[in-house]
Amino acid sequence: MRGRVATFEIPCAAGHDVVYGLARGRGDEIYLAPSNEFCPGLCASVFAFDTGTERFREVIDIRKATGFDPAAGLMPHSKIHLCLQSTAAGRVFAATHFTAPGIGQTNFDPMAAYRGKYAGCYLLEYDPAADRVVNHGLLVSGEGARIACLDERNHQYYFLSYPRNHLFRYDYQVRRLYDLGRVGQENSFGLEVDEQGDLFTSDDLGRILRYSLRADRLEALDLWVPLAPGRSPKANYIRRMIRAADGSFYGFGNKGMRMFRLDPRRLELEDLGSVFGVESGPEREYPRLPAAKALAQTDRGALLIAFGGDGVYSDGRPVPDLVEFDPSTRQVTSHGKFIDPSDGLPAWIPQCALNVPRANAVFFGMQQTVGQLRLWKVDAAPGVVSAPAAETALYRDHVAAVERQPFGASVEGSEPLLFLRAGRVRMHELGWAGEDRVIPAAETAIAALGFADDETLYGLTFGRRAHLFVFHPRRQNRFTENYEVHPWDLGAVTAESISAGRLFCDAASGRILIAVRTRRGPQFWTYAAGSENRRYRGAYHSLPHWAPVQWDDSPFQSVTPQGAAEISFENLIHLRGGDLLLATGPDGRLLQASLAGRFETAGLDLELRCPGLAAVGTDRVFAVGNDSRARLLRRGAAGEWREEKAFAVFAGLPQTFAVDPSERRIAVGTADGQIQLFDLEDSAARTLVRLPQRWKVRALAWQRDGRLHGFYGEDSGVGEAFCCDTGGTVRPDETGILQVPSQPRYWMCHRADAIAAGPDGEVYFGESDRIAHLFGVT
After folding, report:
1. Which of 190, 612, 712, 763 has the greatest number of beta carbons closer than 10 A?
2. Rg for the chain (alpha carbons), in Å?
3. What pLDDT band is residue 416 in, cutting at 50, 70 and 90?
């Protein structure tokens, strides 16, 4: 590369091999974050670099600021990964991330972060005016931050977490964190705020997402990261994106490496095509292009872009290239490769770039293989393509290192991850994407599942609205274009925002009872099972001729009893075969009501826990009292309630209940990972199993063969499915994270609050997240 190119050795630890973050500071200073990919026990750091004097000084010692102790064996805060953001006054914010193992370990397992192997994401701030470091605390346990952006006007710091890919908003003025939910399978590497304070990013299919702070709403736009014709959109999220001087965004896709311009005011996206490289790759593999990994706009308006590969769909070049793009003329100029002219040291993988007008230069953060980590400076007008530099010893050592261990052939994945190994895991969208008839994001979290008969599974979602859907497991051998292969959306039960839901399927009466918690309190509806009205479309051009369900009038009948606003929703149950509802009141005492009637006292002098009720058949209730004793209650012919049996003191805090098909046994999951088993015939009670992690048991379901399936995990972690028998033996092959293989990584079920056992031995898990799916294990 000809022109003024210079590098500066960073006085960081020898194990630091990459700069993932650059940000402007005060005066002539900029900030940078030396990080490391795989060095055990080594934390990242934040330095200030004076572009005038060309001197470094450390401003944040990550290990010291977070109190990290390498001897503890935990994974270190090894990176500040695209999360270095600064204000106009030079306050700089850094959210921590991880990919390096702990001391004495050789394997990096991202799932182990949820098993206590990584503390989580800290947000640190350096204030140059006071010359002090501010620790904003541990924002997200067990996760790292992979990309961030700053909205200084509204005091918001946004970031995407890893591995769950939740979008978080942190108000650094009042120090309050908001979880905006899951935005996709893979982290997008484009996250920017426009002049109005709206946030833009993409999901993992390349669909542009917008979050409005004013409306507190995250929505998917009808704009897509461009891709060559005939290519699959999977994993074509934004690879890099910046906000230009005119307020528009320039960026590149991950898969096709096509450049785009997004106008956030007009909501228009322009495909600028491929600006560098040609597609290559072995036969029957996805065509590859060099990855656009860093870009910045100079004061002249030109974009300087560094191309270098490290992804599944990228052309892995050992030395990156510098390309200039003129937005006004669309002219593309190649400026050669990143090689230091003073000693011939090449860069490897570009990661970030920053335009610094006072220095009339663009600075690049690079990943390197040999030699001391350097900061790269390129003149804002770098010149034209030059002849290749002569190969030096440093150059040859670098190329040999890249060929010996390319990026991705790392310690990650050298041991099996904690995924479910037995059976086949399938994931069903809640609707058919073929006609865009899918329950929208923020309305898909599954609250409850239940079989109305052996062939029909119903589910209830919650969020901005509650939807009822139906799924037919035994109709999976049909064309995928047929709606019966997919869950059908039967419609929104209510337009109100829903925070929780319950679903009671009564096979005897053919009635589905729906209960949701709204701001007005609990609301109830009934739905006639099997009443789905499909209309034949004879003129339709392909399968299916049967259209999705269509209603002339709402199929949901309101049956909310009076006094429902006073009940505890977590203790709401329904006795099968009738219309009797039971719940507890504010004082913990049992209340009862018929549908469309009134909640009144059940006449028992007993205070119950919450949750602490489970329906058993048509006239019995299993109840856990505040005295920690479990009881079996029976309703007499005259409607009176009496205690039929009492059990030993209940151990733990009950969270979920499951009655076996014979109605003889009931399993109770606790908040600390225990399963208590109660035999309702002989009044015996015992601890069935203590699960390996002491997490909350979120859902349970019995199979007809006596196996007990469940899901346990914390509210904000990655939980696991499990299976055990009545002898208390946990089946190791049937315990693990629910994972659906895909490219480039996987879709995992982070949290499931609903489960249903199918008639043919299969198990269904209802995911609870902003974007949720129905998981089936066969």
Report:
1. 712
2. 29
3. low
